[in-house]
Amino acid sequence: MKKAHIDPFFAVLSERNPEPKSELEYTNVYTLLVAVVLSAQATDVGVNKATKALFEKVANPQQMIDLGEGQLKDHIKTIGLFNTKAKNVIKLSQMLMDEHEGEVPQSREALEKLPGVGRKTANVVLNVFFGEPTIAVDTHIFRVSNRTGLAPGKTVLDVEKKLLKVVPEQWQLHAHHWLILHGRYICKARKPDCGACPVIEYCAFKGKI
Ligand code: SF4
């Protein structure tokens, strides 16, 4: 993508959706963290279905520990990898109690030490709840960044670093959501809907139609 096209690319996405929100449902920063951990290799819709009843019962790490791994599994058994995810959620809740007085830390380093929390999950929590201009590169952002030529890269970390370099400061806070939503609904994996694409004139994809 031409450098001069990056600003208008985001300006158009911003105009269409000035305050983009995560499609994951949560009630506070702790339940956001849990929802993001559960969403690995699962859809937001699937996670929301499973967490609706869970988050009516559980709002903090101590309540999750009290609920226990068995009951947690019952709530989330429709989500892929639920056994491992349940173990991680209980362990991370215990770690929050032991090391952070039950609070979710606002630090990448501390977040990434929690079981089941990698760079992507930490980025989502820092961006969505703490309002930091991080960009969590998921499958949609990886594809859109490469396909449009916005921030091509071989690995998610390459793409993340490139995005942080090329996305103008004024768009950094919401870039994460705009790119995810664009990839989820328009620039889809198998067949991008170029006919309905609002940023077609800025996209450098050779196969755009
Ligand atoms: S023109 Fe097509 S390939 Fe380019 S961003 Fe839009 S949907 Fe994706």
Q: What is the helix content?
A: 55-70%
Return the average pLDDT rounded to an integer. Answer: 96
* Strand percent estimate: under 5%
Number of helices: 10
Order of helices and strands: HHHHHHHHHH
| Helix/strand/pairing category | mainly alpha
How far apart are the first and last residues' alpha carbons, in Å? 16 Å
Tally the beta strands.
Answer: 0
Most strands sheet: none
What are the low-pLDDT stretches, counting only 5+ consecutive residues below 50? none
Radius of gyration: 18 Å
From the spread of the alpha carbons, the general shape counts as: elongated
Molecules bound to protein: iron/sulfur cluster
